[in-house]
Amino acid sequence: MSRLALVALALAGCHTLDISQPIALRPDASFGEEERAILSAGAGCWNDEFGTDLRVEPEPAAGVVQEVRVGYLDFVCAFAAGRTENTLPVRISICPIRYMMPKSGASELYLRGALFIVLTHELGHVLNVLPHAERPEAVMAAGGSLYPYDWSRRFHEEDRALLLEGNPGFVPRSRCPGGHVEIIAASSTPRCVCR
Asked: What is the rounded distance in angstroms from the CA atom of residue 39 to the CA atom of residue 31?
């Protein structure tokens, strides 16, 4: 079955957000300040690379009608590190970070980086990127490793193609002078930078 057929099949039961308009990300009570900052950094990656308008808004914001709930959910851990439900209300559910540890005693650096990688990937699904990328270094790669040696992610041409496939008519507008965003997950402050 072609990728386009898979997308059409997936969209049949899903709600599609208009990514040319602001999208409010509303963390629930399970997310503290640090998780909100990491969510904001992940949103900034998509905003800088493609010109989207993902905003972390703890409360309903005036003029923003599209909303995505974000929080931890134990149930998700049985399937993946994160899951996006594109039915109304749209929701990102994240496996609690304590379950993502590869071994006991994982560092804070590891935990922040793992959460950042998972949230940045799930935000792609919010932006109507339903299929996974085949390139392992792409942000939208399936089953990405949560081990730090595998954190050399960046927005790949395949990510761009999948975003455009899920959003016909959208014109990406990078906010980076060089036009590319690099993901820095293994840091005390996970973020994206323009390269």
From this structure: 10
Per-residue confidence in pLDDT tens, the chain, 195 aa: 345 544 444 444 556 899 999 999 999 999 999 999 999 999 999 999 999 999 999 887 777 789 999 999 999 988 888 999 988 889 999 998 777 665 555 677 778 888 998 999 999 999 999 999 998 888 998 875 555 545 666 788 999 999 999 999 999 999 988 777 888 887 788 888 887
CATH topology (fold) of 3-167+174-194: Collagenase (Catalytic Domain) (3.40.390)
pTM for the structure as a whole? 0.87
- b/e code 11-29 from CB counts within 10 Å (16+ = b): eeebeebebeebbbbbbee
Q: What's the rounded Cα separation, in Å, for the pair 68 and 85?
A: 9
Closest to 45 measured CA to CA, from 117, 144, 152, 148: 117
The set of long-range contacts for 142-145, using a CB threshold of 8 Å and a minimum separation of 24, is 143/80, 144/117
Pairing of the two strands 90-94 and 191-194: unpaired
Could you tell me the end-to-end alpha-carbon distance of the chain, in angstroms, rounded to an integer? 36
